[in-house]
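Response to reviewer comment R2.3. The reviewers asked that we include at least one raw input/output pair. We reproduce the pair for Tetratricopeptide repeat protein here without editing.
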Amino acid sequence: MNKFFLLIFSLLFSNLFAQTAEQNLLYIVDSIHILDRPQEQISQLHPEYINNIAVVKDKQMKEQEGYDNVDGILYVFTKAYVQRADSLKQIPSTKNMILNDGKWYLRNHDQAYTGRFIDYYITGQKQGEGYLQQGKVNGKRMMYYKNGGISDIVHYKNAVLNGEEKRFYENGTLLQKGNFTNGVKTGIWEMYHINGVLKQKSNFNTNGNLEGESISFYSTGKQKAKVNYKDGAYQKDQKIDETFALYNEGQELYSQSKFKAAIKKYSEALKIDNNWAEGYFARATAKVNNLDFDEAIEDYNKAIVIEPLYTEAYANRAFASIGKHENNNSRKLSDSKEMTVQLAKNTKLPVASAKKVCSDLNKAIELGDDNLMVFEALEQYCKN
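Raw output as returned:
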């Protein structure tokens, strides 16, 4: 579709929904009745997803859909639906079923549904699939990202989680795996960083409670912490307990804007554990608010060396660098991630600093930071 046609279609699409917004309409997208927050869901349907639209006010057709009390029916057909095989279109979606007493029923049916189901995003891509036995999920259940990649593989027995579970990042990397027994976690469970490195390994007993060692790792593979549990109860550890006691005191002081006192507490905690990324991050954030920008940047550097995938540390390091150069003629830009940064409205950053700032902001976004302030800073300082 060329850009001009897409623009015209977009305007027509917007006008259509503006005209129908005040009417009592039933929205049907790819044969799915959109009953839950229809306007909100329909807003996700950008023109590039749509094949055609039709508004029907015929009484007989409204009765046929079971909604003769509406002003009309707005049918939307996505491109993905039009390209879908007829055999797949015949498989029902739970979005067109009714959940009653823990069982799924096809509309206007008295018997709970047995058979395959496929759910779709409103934009037409497959969202999930599985099998219902007398209205309850049984066997393997698959979930998908909009890009078609698998997000979840789970197993059910009579609607209760039983068997292996695997969850994945959007890029296909394994995020988590483990086993359920009658709805509770049992045995070894593992979580992974997005780079594929083991993030945490824990054991659950037959009651679904943590048992024995739970070990966490940074994305470099270096061990982060080791905690012991007994039937779900944390077993005291002097080093961990002292470290977190000081950290929590620092957090309380920080919340009272007593930044120097908070920095002292974080420093004491870091003397006990000097390989703690979160400790350096907390101290750096307090230093930013105390306008100690150079020292803050040093602490963010340390946090990132320890944990190269520390999303918030990249964004905050960028804000600290900006704050260093623009503390005068300032305005508040961000209260995000437990920090306040004062930024000037029009000052241009030095080239070398701008390069580092833009690199950090882009890295934060790449790692999943969706904070509006990050995007605003990127637009202000990196648009060239």
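The first helix runs from residue 3 to 20. The chain has four domains: 3-83, 85-158, 162-235, 240-382. Further pairs are available on request from the corresponding author.
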